[in-house]
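User: Here's a chain of 369 residues. Predict its fold as tokens.
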Amino acid sequence: MEDVKSVGGHSAARERDGWVTGTLVLFCLASAIVTVVAGVVQMSFGEYSMTVVETWHAVFNPTVVFNLDVWSAFLLGTETPEMSVASIVVWELRLPRVLVGIIAGATLSISGAIFQAVTRNELASPFVLGVSSGAGFAVLATLIVFSGLSQLLPLIATVGGAAAFLIVYTIAWKGGTSPVRLVLAGVIVNMVFQSLQQGLFFFADDIGVVQTAIAWLTGSLTGTRWDQVRIAILPALLSIVIAIGGARQLNVLMLGEQTARSLGMRVERTRFLLSVVAILAASVAIAVAGIVSFFGLVVPHIVRNTVGGDYRRLMVGCLFAGPALMVVADVGARLALPSIQLPVGVVTGLVGGPYFLYLMRRQQTMGEL
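Assistant: Prediction complete.
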């Protein structure tokens, strides 16, 4: 009988460990297809009009794909070799916009998922907790006042986002924190940093810088180039790898502090380190795409409702769903009006704002102040 129980226990353990499900695989595959299709549509429109087939051929042009000099120019900033007009339009002007959208979508989604775990609050996100506004203020100050430091934008955004999150946590701390206090503290910090952002415009004497800053504050992928890809790619990969590696710890945190401590976890240390990863991930996106509101709130919920609450599935799902939804939102922002390109943050705000209200209405018990 004991042998039977042992076998049953091992089977249950294997079942729990088998977190890769058919639903997850199909979800990731569908998200990848959506990203590719939306990316091709995005690269087909513009002053230099191309068909979908022409765009596809330009993207996979062997003379470009297998040319080391081209990749050196894109990734290292060396001189670009001669290419056809179609290849120049796609590879130098349009593909970077799609790549930045993929990076921003993945990092914001993963950041939001981590914040929801470390705070055990499904209303948490980089935007709601003030991280976006803090990072935004730091980046805006760099663009307007210290433009010579633009290559350090991910680091500067991380410092600003970390400072904002520490302020939020300090305000919310009262022998511990609660979901309500964290959200209210995030609202307060958001308002303060947004006021500081508006004050920075008085220091700008170049109308071009002002226009760029306004577009950036609303979250925009317009005008992104390989410079932004080079700035974001390494810190984005670092934050994504660490976040996926920390999925088990996030699962334990979701069980509650007492349970986590009983399992041997150093809760405060783990929470702090994972929060740093979330701040880095959000800051990378903010540095290259601006403040894309509510994205980190909505995507983890969509993924959780589809593949389940296991953070191993959730992280992988966000890694695929985030880019898909960001690129689709950017296509919608670009094609919504014939003569104007809307910032992608406008689209995500129109969707995310009502969704945030829905989540608040759905919460029956959010905790005491």
